[in-house]
Design goal:
Length: 316
């Protein structure tokens, strides 16, 4: 993701590229199980791993030849990990990724068992239950890569978290595997909305609030993604045993509903210049307001890109 953010400096193009890249993740999840099953059954248990190793090596060679990676020294100092972690806007975006993926991470170990107990589901039904989520995730990432830039990534991610909450509430109501198709599809689509919007948003936040060096911020993005898939399964077994499968999903839905409004803070985050103006001249309002300066100079307070705010000019 950091490489894509560096290659695509235009925010709209970056969102499109990251949507396609996240679609590749969904495609791997979609193809992986049937590919592994067929190769294991008809070729041998080592065959899928040998083929994947060859594909990974070929992909690495292609990246080396096509992208020609090199060490580039930038004029601006890269933001420290501490500065990024202490940035509330980056934490909000990363938190959305975590909570969006935590719901399905909780379902992965617990839903098949719940299906056996409540539906008498067979093994193949347990295996295909997440197939609608994988397909819809592939669709969601490719649709909201470009669409998120048009309607506002914060708005798309907020809507995605709300849909995740609704789908989690619907899953315990299912009485057959057919009833799980729509909630799982909605869940995957909504997760695709959040991921494809918040990943490029992290790069945008670094651009406007720090320096255009993306390695650390996308390390945080990956950590947020991994935390969701680490904490979700770890808590799932304990929560199912203590409060039950239904209440576990209700609790996760409430968390998604409660977190979603925080994304409104990403509507127009302050830029580097606004932060600096606010620190150097506490009397100046940097969001377009007009107030007195302190040094007898003309001050222009810039607004965030795309915000319909006029420049504020103050004179003593």
């Amino acid at each position: 993701m950091g490489m894509l953010a560096e290659r695509y400096t235009n925010d709209k193009e970056r969102g499109n590229a990251m949507g396609i890249a996240l679609g590749g993740l969904a495609l791997g999840v979609l193809i992986g199980p049937p590919f592994g099953g067929v190769m294991y059954e008809f070729v041998g248990k080592s065959a899928p791993f040998i083929i994947l190793a060859a594909l990974a090596l070929g992909d690495g060679v292609l990246q080396l030849l096509m992208l020609q990676p090199s060490v580039v020294h930038t004029e601006s100092d890269p933001p420290s990990l501490k500065a990024l972690v202490c940035d509330p806007y980056i934490i909000i975006a990363a938190g959305a990724i975590t909570f969006a993926n935590m719901g399905i991470a909780m379902l992965e170990p617990s839903l098949p068992i719940w299906m056996m107990d409540n539906m008498g589901a067979s093994k193949w039904e347990q295996g295909v239950t997440f197939l609608p989520a994988s397909i819809s995730y592939l669709i969601g990432t490719n649709v909201f890569g470009p669409l998120g830039h048009k309607i506002g990534r914060w708005r798309a991610a907020l809507l995605g978290l709300m849909i995740i909450g609704l789908c989690l509430l619907c899953i315990p109501m299912a009485t057959s595997i057919n009833h799980l198709i729509l909630p799982n599809a909605g869940l995957g689509f909504a997760i695709g909305m959040v991921d494809s919007c918040m990943m490029p948003e992290l790069g945008y936040l670094v651009d406007i609030r720090h320096a255009a060096v993306y390695g650390s911020v996308y390390a945080l993005g990956d950590v947020a993604f991994c935390v969701g898939f680490a904490v979700g399964p770890a808590l799932s077994g304990t929560l199912v045993n203590t409060i039950g499968f239904e209440w576990m999903l209700v609790g996760m839905a409430v968390i998604c509903f409660a977190y979603a409004p925080l994304l409104t803070f990403l509507r127009a985050p302050p830029t580097r210049e606004e932060k600096k103006v606010g620190i150097d001249n506490p009397g100046i309002v940097s969001d377009g307001g007009t107030t007195g300066g302190s040094d007898g100079i003309v001050v222009v307070a810039s607004a965030p890109p795309g915000a319909a705010v006029e420049n504020a000019v103050t004179k003593l």
